[in-house]
Amino acid sequence: MDSTVLFALGLTLFAGLATGIGSLIAFFASRTNTKFLSVSLGFSAGVMIYVSMIEIFFKAKDSLTAAQGETAGYWLTLAGFFGGMVFMAVLDRILPQMGNPHEVRTVEDMDDGPTNDEYARLRKMGIFTALAIAIHNFPEGIATFMSAIQDPALGIAIAIAVAIHNIPEGIAVSVPIYYATGSRKKAFQYSFLSGVSEPVGAIAAWLFLMPFLSDTLFGIIFAGVAGIMVFISLDELLPAAKRYDEAHLSIYGLVAGMAVMALSLVLLA
């Protein structure tokens, strides 16, 4: 295992375990800083959308056209890009039956204790939400890992963006578990474990994809990664950011994320 692979795995571990940070925020913050949350989620979406459409998509296209020719390569790029979107859309259609990973909860939610007959329901909801987020994070782990393998600087940017969006997911898991059990430890454990699937996804990519990696496979995977990240941004990050929006802060965060990503790509080129 060379240093690039270790670095990519480390980035994915950092991004995935940010769910634990969300759990800690839920326990130790007296209130949710909604302005900061709105800007941060918008910023994360800006990074993901910009890097997907400007950098990852065209790297995938270059790889596929070099291997398959201009026309076939471009069609494969489009198929990979929209295939990534369809994959996440199908996943989202399945997961709400288990628990909604997109339901954003706040620190203030913990002030409203449940009635006695709600404990079992809340525990079940928390466990299913943790499981849904774990399944949901698996392809994100592959995306972060493959990006870091191709370009470490690109991997860092994506890992930070994914970590930001994992923090509210950690809150979403920990709040109902804490409601139901009264145990901060159990709530943190479930939240923490829901993020472990992200580095597991990275390890799966290393074990099962890396040995067969060619220009064609790399291009298809990278196009799919771009589609996955755009879908996550539009389906999760921006709606969550708008929920807490004040005076267009989420859009300012979005533009700032794009600007920072654009500047970093120029400076690190």
UniProtKB/TrEMBL annotation:
It comes from the Bacteria. One of its GO terms (molecular function) is zinc ion transmembrane transporter activity. Fe(2+) binds at N137, E140, N166, E169, E198. InterPro entries: ZIP, Zn_transptr_ZupT. The keyword Metal-binding applies. It is found in: Cell membrane. It catalyses: Zn(2+)(in) = Zn(2+)(out). Pfam families: Zip. Keywords: Cell membrane, Ion transport, Iron, Membrane, Metal-binding, Transmembrane, Transmembrane helix, Transport, Zinc, Zinc transport. It is a multi-pass membrane protein. GO terms for cellular component: plasma membrane. The chain crosses the membrane at residues 6-29, 36-60, 72-91, 127-149, 155-178, 190-210, 216-237, 249-268. The keyword Ion transport applies. Zn(2+) binds at E140, H165, E169. HAMAP family: ZupT. Belongs to the ZIP transporter (TC 2.A.5) family. ZupT subfamily. Mediates zinc uptake. May also transport other divalent cations. NCBIfam families: PRK04201.1 (NF003243). This is Zinc transporter ZupT. It comes from Planococcus maitriensis. The gene is zupT.
